[in-house]
């Protein structure tokens, strides 16, 4: 299961500030490989599904954490993406539609020694499970939530989803969908998320770097992953994958750097509104420099609104990464500080008795 | 305080039923609670029934705003809060009107005349005061200006407003009743001292009003006699008074302690279950973690997640919440993990009667999920039994790795009775063993872990918690292959797994006590079978019927799924089986279906427990018919 390496591999610091700071590390000298995270189950997504690339990236990334494999848990809901846990040789639960964040919250709250991941999709997380997602983010439970967004319902064979674009023709919307889609990043920021990022199935390197940042974050980390469904919604993100087009469309969010795509940059006007202008025309003092750690989420939110439905420009990367107390740490702290010593039978006897007792003699 | 020698006559009674009634803002629940506590300390047996409106503060002085608290105490074993009050304390005209029809002729009524103003009388449709118009002639009426005498007694409290002084009228009433029934007040004094520790003025005012009420009884000529009720003969031991919700909370904590598992409660506020959340939230010292979830589904989901991680996952709710949790309970059936679901039933369907009792969730508990989805179901029979049933629920959940639904109800939840304290060390040892190593070998002879390889005796699967090296596995709601737990759509496997899950639940019957029949004559032809909170009223009714010469047997089910193994055999022994239920015959339907016996329903869904006298008539009638 574990392979000896010549040097210890602890890429992430073992401290409580890190998302995995309370999870036991492998022994010094030990390391796991991608193979250790590959289960014996046959992968059953459709050929060409974006999920394969994401699975490969996650399996490739997990060894980097240096954690004991048995302390990693993947919890999913229902949908194509939610089959994910079966293919990873960690602990896993394939639960019910939309409820993974709630189940994972109970697990994370009671087991600080676990690295808990949620795998969900646009229907699972944003439609049936919307309530659990926003509350997990609000509570800031120490979870890494991977939201595979393919803008369609795959498993039920092609109905529109809460991220499908207005007018999209699907089996359930033959004349085009009528409702405004969610922007998952805006939604998460509105729900007080402390970490929000966006990446894409096909960009292994970017995906891995975002996973790394998300795992490092202590608290709820929401990662939206654009994922292609070749069967029911093929090619929706193709313009972002085409190298020549991507450069002009993707606004790379890098902390401390100007937000730009190709020869255009993002500028802020007097009212705080953001727009994209040719660099040559931009007032240098108005060019937006990304600050992931800004406490005020408005800047991140404004960036999230730069999305355009035709993908003319799409911010990618980490929108926000701020430290905030986590629900599960705080809950454990409350219990720990109330509980000074091991509870004995006598303590329970006293609890049962309460304050007003009387005795009947025998 | 004045326990000075009274010159008045003291009369001995064997039992008393008192109902305190007033506006929901009048503090009647507190008054009732304190009087109960004083009575318990005196050693009487007792049973209580709070009854309050769903609205927190309905318009003042109106019928919907009336809140009441009934207490039955006696020098002998008490089974119910009493069919009809001997004494009604009515703090306003609405309280009188709402409760008068429950009073037998000859009952005592103490009215707060200060509230019998024209305006208050007209609010409830009295043209003139019933206290003055002769309409209460067949009762013993004590008109007392409770509010103004209390305010007068507090004349020297110059820092208090009139409103604050008026608020002490409930303590005045409590003092008066304490004198009338010779109850010691020290417990209430201590209670007030701790409640108002930060507010010495209010504390003093309450103590003064309490004593003023006591002294008023002693000095006024309106009360010529006071009463006493001797302690009841009870089994030796240390007792406390306890409500069902508190007993259930304590049972969960004690069981988790005996199981050596951390207790995790995921819950969403709902009447009448919220007090369990409140109680457990205050017990972090005992390692209890509570989470107020965003909804009912998240409450049970978080509990199940905690169970997956090796905690004792518990969720608490009432009927509407159980409906929302159904899918997650189904997942727990499939995952075969321990989960305790407490449903404190209330009137339904839909929002129904949130503050009133009913036991109409039995079929929902048994069958309210998609697919063949068997779970264990247990029900406490008295407030104190909620403790034992919680321990039993945890035993079944952890031993059989299954959801267990506990069906309590509003009557048990808020009602109280004396509880003989158990010794924690004498509770069953519920310690569980988590799986720690592989339990099989693969084709190559290498050790592997099969999450659905069952214990041959209990059919329970191993509880292998994350963090255990070598046992990494995936579970989910999709059908799993027998033994390996891998996804399987194989028809034969699904058939086998469905039957295995059912057999596991059925097998619990091997570890539950047989159904006991209580039949002193040994010759009864009629059996009365109940479940849940109807125990007290049924037992009281059976006692009444026997007193009138009827031979009748009683049996009470605490396990509803599975039933005790001898249930069919017991039912078949009798010519007639009567099943009283606060629903439209759900247990009767189950007994008929399962055992092919002619079980007959007697039902009532009035949001209130059965009256013993009414049930006794039904029983006597059945006995007559059976012997004809
Ligand atoms: S339907 Fe679409 S999302 Fe689902 S597995 Fe097939 S390609 Fe992937």
UniProtKB/TrEMBL annotation, chain A:
Record field: transmembrane: none
InterPro entries hit by this protein: 2-oxoacid:Fd_oxidoreductase, THDP-binding, TPP_enzyme_TPP-bd
SUPFAM superfamilies per UniProt: Thiamin diphosphate-binding fold (THDP-binding)
Keywords, ordered alphabetically: Oxidoreductase
Pfam families according to UniProt: TPP_enzyme_C
Record GO biological process: cellular respiration
Gene Ontology MF term list: magnesium ion binding; oxidoreductase activity, acting on the aldehyde or oxo group of donors, iron-sulfur protein as acceptor; thiamine pyrophosphate binding
Residue span, Thiamine pyrophosphate enzyme TPP-binding domain: 78-225
Protein name, entry field: 2-oxoacid:ferredoxin oxidoreductase subunit beta
Species for this entry: Intrasporangium oryzae NRRL B-24470
Source taxonomy: Bacteria, Bacillati, Actinomycetota, Actinomycetes, Micrococcales
